[in-house]
Amino acid sequence: MIKAALSVLLVLVAMSSTFGKNTLKSGKRIPQTLSRGWGDQLIWAQTYEEALYWSRSRNKPLMVIFHLEDCPHSLALKKIFSEDNEIQKKIDDDFIVLNLMYETTDKHLSPDGQYVPRILFVDPTMTVRADINGRYMNRLYAYEPADVKLLKLNMDKAKKLLKSEL
Amino acid sequence: MIKAALSVLLVLVAMSSTFGKNTLKSGKRIPQTLSRGWGDQLIWAQTYEEALYWSRSRNKPLMVIFHLEDCPHSLALKKIFSEDNEIQKKIDDDFIVLNLMYETTDKHLSPDGQYVPRILFVDPTMTVRADINGRYMNRLYAYEPADVKLLKLNMDKAKKLLKSEL
Q1: In chain B, whose CA is at the least distance from the CA of A27?
Q2: Which Gene Ontology terms describe the biological processes this protein takes part in (chains A, B) (predicted)?
């Protein structure tokens, strides 16, 4: 037997989760989707490792959305995000996308702490784009529904890959 | 900008994947499910971190299934697995469950290499149960459809938590 080397658990944002909530009254459960309502028509990576692999092999920037299903700010952003055809099309054409309710072991994905909702971009060179942020100084990677325009500008920024800056 | 510290990519089993295959002829995509056909009625963890968190907080063993959607051995096992009511009920009652198509950063989940399909159990103490294995000496954690009975016995073994051995 081997001891799993994971201090991960200690830094989990996790807390209150939606585990077990997807039960219908009839007792039949609705299968969980990978999109979790952020865009059913998009192709979602399941894990960060998978997302990085696809970002690198397809040379597309990765967008990581951290959220919680019982956080009103996450839900408000999700509604705007999933209904915005321009965002959805941009992602489908040019991004690898991943939504997470649990933190990963990579601390670079929480440059100024773990909170939701927050959106981080990762370049195909596997560099977290900490330079691409929203408008809140105390939570650099937070977006509110009113920030959709800024989010789109930031997506365009992320599309300019680091290699092309050389 | 911060460099993501991930040598992970080098050890990815990944290879040929199903990325982009879930497109219908009409152009409308079927939303991806977390179950990936291994049991739509079960509640699946999305990531290893999430699964460990639930295993610990609910004091239930974790079952991790590594598979690929274009691997005939994975598909054969999936069919038996998803149609076996006893297995599905056992999981729903007593296990946390996770299916992965990409390797994690935890090498303890590949005690004798990375191959699919393979099934590993993890105790709520976060100990990978390398002692619970199938019948193939060259691939200790592989199961074939004919091994369903052994898999059930192994699930019962995993249910005897390590703490209770003390």
Answers
A1: B41
A2: intestinal epithelial cell differentiation
